[in-house]
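sorry to bug you again but im stuck and you know this stuff better than me. what follows is a protein written twice so to speak, once as letters and once as structure tokens for the fold. mainly i need to know what kind of three dimensional shape the backbone takes. anything you notice is useful, everything is just below:
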Amino acid sequence: MLNNVDVETQKLTLRHILSVRCPMCRAKPKQQCTLSTGQPSAKTHLAREQAAAKVSPPENSGQAAVRIVKN
């Protein structure tokens, strides 16, 4: 069964992408993706970008929201 979900990846930062485990090479969060030879990859895998887009949307970007409550 295919999962046809449109995911925007152009708004993700490298920090967001590296916050998830890579489903292709199984690189841990905060670690660089690796090639099939075991050498570090210059780019992250597309599947990792898509996984990061599903898990942590870039709108929050790790910053705390501040709300002012008026009495």
User: Anything to note?
Assistant: Residues 5 and 30 are 25 Å apart (CA to CA). The chain has a mean pLDDT of 78. The chain has two helices and no strands.
